[in-house]
Amino acid sequence: MNHQTRVYNDIFEMLPTEENPSPMVRINRMSPSQDFLLYAKLEWMNPFGSVKDRAAWAMLLDLEQRGELGKGRGIVEPTSGNTGISLAAMARARGYHMRAVVPNKIPLEKKVLLKIAGAELDVVSDDLCPAPGLGDGSINLAKTHAKASRDKYAMPNQYENEKNVEAHFRTTGPEIWRQTEGKITHLFLSLGTCGTVTGISRFLRARKPDLKVIAIQPTEGHDVPGLRNVTQLGVSKLFDSSLIDDIVEVEYRTAYTRALELCQTEGLLAGPSSGLIYEGAREIILRDKAGFGVMIFPDNIFKYTSNMMKHIPGLASGNQA
Ligand SMILES: Cc1ncc(COP(=O)(O)O)c(C=O)c1O
User: Fold this and answer.
1) In the β-sheet with 153-154, what is the strand arrangement from edge to edge?
2) How far is residue 55's CA from residue 41's CA, in Å, rounded to a whole number?
3) 11-46+164-311 and 52-154: same fold?
């Protein structure tokens, strides 16, 4: 493996590490303050397209090393899409089958991509799944599959799996520390399973106790796939409020308008959760004035064209052949 020439023996060698970090790109035209350096860490540059590559790989390797996979035993996992896409592609490349349980509300693109990546799909109806993004219905159904067919399925369960946190403690945290040369003052991210926030914050706070960790959440009743409002966080065992300084709530539709602006102003083809995170960062930067901030941009816009058409007037018109 050679990260200089970027010639690899398999796709797994491309996964992010301190020696092969996901890129950090500076925000220029949308910079909220001259005195505040702001960077976006582009997690969509990971080989399977999102921040969830990190957790998926750590959870899959752990199952493999414990002898939980193989001989007809694959994976079942509840997912709002990104974890499932990473897990499905990884599992299939290693010869395991994968079943993803998803809420109906996730974008059509994610459902199709899950199938393309090789997952069998259970789509849970909205009734079973009151919370948009990822509902308890999908978690319970995945658990039912795992219990009923122990010989067929292992369930990583990203909501409870410490490997999810450890992945970020071992990779994302050290990457940011090295990429910012320890100068980071503010970390901006959002909350899904909370593996990202808990893992990075644990690593960076140990080196820089006064680092500000800001979580950005969409307003309740939101439509930003992959994310949870704090009122929906009970389900994540990985949420640790002591590692977060501020939670900024952003009107969820702003996620879409800011994502569009990032695409059209910065050349960053950022998805809606990145738009949401940018807006929260902007509000804190206007408050704190000076600093060195890093935003985690979880994935890009390609999986959200149908959501964008719903939330951005004008995008949907004139698309018929
Ligand atoms: C699209 C997407 N996937 C996943 C996540 C959540 O990451 P985690 O599950 O580690 O909290 C986010 C959070 O920002 C996200 O926006």
Assistant:
1) 119-124, 98-103, 74-78, 153-154
2) 16
3) yes
User: Does CATH place domain 11-46+164-311 in 3.60.60.10?
Assistant: no
Q: What is the 3-state secondary structure (H, E, C) of 96-149?
A: CCEEEEEECCCCHHHHHHHHHCCEEEEEECHHHCCCCCCCHHHHHHHHHHHHHC
Pocket test for ligand 1, best of 46, 196, 277 (most atoms within 8 A of CB): 196
Is ligand 1 within 6 A of the CB of residue 198? no
The position carrying tokens 């899959």 is: 60
C-alpha 10 – ligand 1 centre gap (Å): 26
Q: 272 in ligand 1 pocket by Cβ < 6 Å?
A: no
Active-site amino acid positions: 52, 273
Query: How confident is the prediction along the chain (321 residues), in pLDDT tens digits per residue?
Result: 899 999 999 999 999 999 999 999 999 999 999 999 999 999 999 999 999 999 999 999 999 999 999 999 999 999 989 999 999 999 999 999 999 999 888 899 999 999 999 999 999 875 433 344 444 578 888 888 988 888 999 999 999 999 999 999 999 999 999 999 999 999 999 999 999 999 999 999 999 999 999 999 998 877 887 787 777 767 789 999 999 999 999 998 999 999 999 999 999 999 999 999 999 999 999 999 999 999 999 999 999 999 999 999 899 887 766
Which ligand 1 atom sits closest to the C-alpha of 80? 3
Task: Determine if ligand 1 sits within 6 Å of the CB of residue 285.
Answer: no
Domain ranges of the chain: 11-46+164-311, 52-154
52-154 classified as CATH 3.40.50.150: no
Q: Closest Cα to atom 7, ligand 1: which residue? A: 192
- Using the mean position of ligand 1's atoms as its centre, give its distance from the Cα of residue 32 in Å: 24
> Does 133 contact ligand 1 (Cβ within 6 A)?
no
